[in-house]
Amino acid sequence: MGTNENKRRGHPVAGKSAQPATDRDDGEGPSSTGTSASERAKFERLAEGWWDLRGPMRPLHMMNPVRIGFFRDEMVKRLGGGVDSAAALSGLAVLDVGCGGGLLAEPLARLGARMTGVDLEAALIDVANRHAAASGLEIDYRVATTDQLIEEDLRFDAVIASEVIEHVADPQAFVSSLAHLVRPGGLVLLSTPARTVRSFGQVIVAAEYILKWLPRGTHDWRRFLTPAETTGLLRRAGLIPLDIAGINYDLGKSCFYRTPDVRVNYMVSSIRPLA
Question: Annotated region Disordered: where (predicted)?
Fold first, then answer.
C-alpha cells in the first residue's frame, strides 16, 4: 500500500506466471516507472485517514513493527549501527518510495535515518508533512517519481518500497529504478503480498470483505508477485538478494509477526554490488 511509485507499467516479469494480469499496462500512468491514475486514486481517497489507527490504514499500522524491525535489522547488519541503539540508523540516507502519509518514514527517522519520502499524490505528501511537523521530525517529503530522482543523480544508502510493487504496472522497470537510486554497497528493501491461494484468502477475502480493514478493491491479487518472481526482478536489475522473511497474522493475539512462512506477505533485502 503506500502510493508513490506505487504503480508501474508492464514488462513481463518472469514468464507467464509473473504477469498474471493482462491489464498491467492500463495507459494511465505518467511514465514507465509511474503510477496509473486508477491506482493513485485509491490511495488519494484514503489520505485523511492515514494516521487513524482504526481507519483504513489499520493493517499497515499493525504491520509496521514487523516491517520496521526487518528493515532496521537488515540496515544495521549490512550497513553498520546497533540494533539496540535508539539511533541505530544514524548517518544513513534512506529513501521511502511510495511513502504515503509517512508510516514508515517517521519511525525510521526516529532511529536516526536521514529520510526522504516520495509519493505521486500531493494529498498524501501534505498529510505526511503535517504529521511530521506535529511530531517534531525533519523529513524531506516530495511529490516525485523515481525517474525524477534519478535525473537529479541522487543516491541513497538504502531504498525501501513497502507494499508498493503490487500496485505498479511494470515491476521490472520499477525495481530497476530503485537499483539506480541506491549507492554501490547499499540496500534495496521490499515488502509485498505473495500471489498464493493463502494470500487471496487473507489479503483479499478476509481483509477487504470479511474484516473490512481495507476498502474493497484496494488490491488486485493478479498483480501480486511470488518471492521467486520478486528475487528474479532484483537480479535482473543488477541486485543480489540477501534475506527474506514472511509476515503473518496471529488471530488470537490480534497482531502480525515475522515468520519463515512467505506464503501471505513477505519482506526481502538485496544489495547493489560494489563493482
Answer: 1-40
